[in-house]
Write a structure and sequence with these properties.
Elements (H helix, E strand, L loop, with lengths): L20 H23 L9 H6 L6 H18 L11 H11 L2 H14 L4 E7 L5 E7 L14 E7 L6 H4 L3 H8 L5 H11 L1
Helix pairs in contact: 1-3, 4-5
The structure holds manganese (II) ion.
The site of manganese (II) ion (MN) has 7 residues, from helix 1.
């Protein structure tokens, strides 16, 4: 079974004005679609064919650039669409809020640290909130399409919130103003979905 580009759970213009429709459409139909196609090409005829994406990334040979870049790109964008919503924003609640408060002290401090991880990632990459077994959360960032499921990225645990800071994610609307894009992202975070991922992977 080849990997398939997932449909967005909302329309391309649903996240406006925070993320514009044209950016969403290109990001999904060109970038994410490209990673998906190239991932399938990279694993075709190898022993990775038929494995889950989580399994492929967790056991990745990091020198395999085709699978690393396109497998990461396939996984990261699938997560990214799912943790945004036109009804997003606000604050987390329940055990996720408790985990965030216990590590960072407050939601505001979490937001500052996550925004800083996203803002200081040089070049292309992602900022992450990850959960470790036991329930502790961690903020980290990775270059390119790496993520915490891969070996030795400096990021541990399972990703539950990710922000794409590649220029293709924001340049049409925000040009070089990455901090404005990061700030806008907080208006569309689907905390219910993040809490679901937290509960499933803690
Ligand atoms: Mn992207």
């Amino acid at each position: 079974m080849a990997f398939e580009l997932p449909q967005l759970p909302y329309a391309y213009d649903a996240l406006e004005p925070h993320i514009d429709a044209r950016t969403m459409e290109i990001h999904h139909t060109k970038h994410h679609n490209g990673y998906t196609t190239k991932l399938n090409d990279a694993i075709q005829g190898t022993d990775l064919e038929g494995k889950s994406i989580e399994d492929i990334l967790a056991n990745l040979d990091m020198s395999n650039g085709g699978v690393r870049n396109n497998g990461g790109g396939f996984y990261n964008h699938s997560l990214f669409w799912s943790i945004m919503s036109p009804n997003g924003g606000g604050n987390p609640s329940g055990e996720l809020a408790e985990a965030i408060n216990s590590v960072f002290g407050s939601f505001e401090e979490f937001k500052n640290k996550f925004s800083s991880a996203a803002g200081t990632r040089f070049g292309s990459g992602w900022a992450w909130l990850c959960v470790h077994k036991g329930g502790a959360v961690e903020i980290c960032s990775t270059p390119n399409q790496d993520n915490s499921l891969m070996p030795n990225t400096g990021c541990g645990g399972h990703p539950i919130l990710g922000l794409d800071v590649w220029e293709h994610a924001y340049y049409l609307n925000y040009q070089n103003r990455r901090p404005d894009y990061i700030n806008a992202f907080f208006n569309v975070i689907n905390w219910g979905k993040v809490a679901e991922l937290y509960a499933a992977n803690k």
